[in-house]
Amino acid sequence: MKNITRVKELLSEIGEKDECIGNMLRISKAVEQSDYKQKGYLGIIRSDYMYDSETNEPKLIEVNTIASSFGVLAWGANQIHQVLAEKSSTEIDMSRLKRTKNPSVLIPEGLKQAYDLYFDTENADPSLGIVLLICGKNERNVNDIGILIDNLESTYQIKTKYADFDQVNANSEAKEGKLFYEGQEVAIIYYRHGYDSSNYEKESDWTARETLELSQAIKCPSIDLQLLTLKKVQEFLSSESIWQEFNGTDLEDIRKFFTGMWGLSEDTEETRAIIQEAKEHPEKFVLKPQREGGGHNFFGDQIKEELEKKDELWQYSLMARIFPVSFRAILMREGKIWEGESVSEVGIFGKLLVKLDEEHTQVKNEEIG
What we know:
This protein is about 40% helix and about 25% strand.
């Protein structure tokens, strides 16, 4: 991430007020100043989109690096949809249901490729090290995670150990940049926990995160890659001036996937105008804090209430609301059937494996489902 310094500068003001982001920036700086050079990083990234009915184009909602889940479950759901479509009395275009890339296979493949990068050899001996999977104490997403790990072990014979932050502190030892967990060398740290401030309940949780990040194990994701998921960065990339600076036709093709986003911390004429518009027409906007994953956003009258808290506006990005096409759907949750209007969100998985040499060589950069 050659431009990570610029990202850190962008986040520095928020980091002074937001404890979670401040700790992330502090750990990032400690990694940068460490005597032990990082070998690389892996991103299993899910970019979420909705198809906007007003522009007839997909628009980016957010990018996830730790909250990058449901690859396995989505593939399974697609298989169920294909079976149901084949049995349906209604003619259905099956080509729209066919998927050729299976995340439950390609995510373990990415972990294997990162394992080889750590040991700097192709087809590294699977007994040399382990994957350390960081999860919550009461992890609910066990099926999605478990199948990935089962596929990693059955296909590549690489072992995985699960740990929460307390277990990392109790059972880890660092030796000359290498991390050992319960006596075994850790080649990959695979985060499935730690993307939200609520995941850090006490100071020792941040101690565990710093221990993990300072090691030379390949992180999925590294803390710098996680910083790129914050809404402030998405807001930064939505700026017309930034795209002019990068100046490339390919980038212009990418830019159309972004919708309007505005920072609210600076007292400028433009900021005052967009705040006033959001107060008058809150239905046109979404108010987002600097967090990865869903469940934090404000809509409708909630936006008007939050915008009155002038001392707290620094923490938000205001986003133009996407209006996806709705359709009738039948859904089941906790054994109960629900029928009504629904909208779809599309998550595209990508794999990014980077070797941290002078060129920051991209070993892999591809869509995986």
